[in-house]
Amino acid sequence: MNQSNLSALIWSVANLLRGNYKQSDYGKVILPFTVLRRLDCVLEPTKAAVLAEHEAKTRDGINPHPFLLRASGTGFYNTSPLGLRTLLGDPSHVRANL
Question: Do the beta carbons of residue 88 and residue 61 sit within 8 Å?
Answer without folding.
Answer: no
